[in-house]
Amino acid sequence: MTPEPSRKPAGPGARHRVVVLAMDGLLPFELGIPQRIFGKARGADGRRLYDIVTCSIRPPGPVETDADFAVLIGNGPEALATADTVVVPASHELGPVYEDGVLTPELAAALALIRPGTRLVSICTGGYVLAAAGFLDGRPATTHWYHAEHFQRLFPKVRVDADVLFVDDGDVLTSAGVAAGIDLCLHLVRRDHGTAVANDVARRTVVPPHRDGGQAQYIQRPVPEQQAAGTTAARAWALARLHEPIQLRDMARQEAMSVRTFTRRFREEVGVSPGQWLTRQRVERARHLLESTDLSIDQIAHDAGFGTAQSMRQHLQGALGVTPTAYRRTFRSGGATPAAPQRHP
Hints:
Blueprint: E1 16-22, H1 28-39, E2 50-56, E3 61-64, E4 70-73, E5 85-88, H2 96-100, H3 105-111, E6 119-122, H4 127-132, E7 140-141, H5 148-154, E8 159-160, E9 166-168, E10 172-175, H6 180-193, H7 195-205, H8 232-239, H9 248-254, H10 259-270, H11 274-292, H12 297-303, H13 309-320, H14 324-332, E11 342-344
Parallel strand pairs: 1-2, 1-5, 5-6, 6-10, 7-8
Antiparallel strand pairs: 3-4, 9-10, 9-11
């Protein structure tokens, strides 16, 4: 089963409806992520941008968690039929979904209520539910790094990327473990309503609006006995002068390292190469300027460090699937950016 492209809520002023599916064995932290992130999103006039509803696969009642308490869920599975976006957090009691890759009859019946065109989102091992339902067949996806190999064996049709924090494949999005659900939900707010709204939510939640690197930085590996300084100072130095040409040797010099040592250390800490990181920061700077200023495309290309409008156009097209002009038109008018498949380390 592959859902159709996502749609906007019907009717003027209608809010996007997010329905969160609570299953037995759920992690309370992950259950609360959509409520916190989407619930804090506000428009310029202060109005809430999302309605968030939590439901279970059974009639209203208690749902067990992996902690020493249960949560009382006031909505049954019929709420799934009202969703514009469905979020499936992780559960430690997935049973045959985790063991055999098949849905229970109860879960299958609940998922069947989801309307075509609904955007689907999973947090951590919630991706097992989407995969067992067939929503991830032939698609890129991620899950917690600890379960990635098992996930790939169980669902060979899924293109698993265990290195990233989340994968945006348009109408189906999957996140890595636990707190990566925050990254994904912030990304959705950014995709739906722009950087300014997402940054405001991040500030209110006291989390970074965008985390560098992927899951690789959180996987425990043997480390050298002698630890040298990191690359934080070089990144701060580069961010302060994105509008200038920045050479790898210049960044390495900030940490008094050879280029080779700096490149290796940078990738270990951030999860991507210095060049990839610089490009991402410049894309984010360009997005901010396109949304929040009336500067010309040429000036933004200069201020973001791309040099020319053509270079910026190529990078934004590759990263976002849209041109700078189309991006500005979309976000300056308060709409949502066209979704393009993305992987976010």
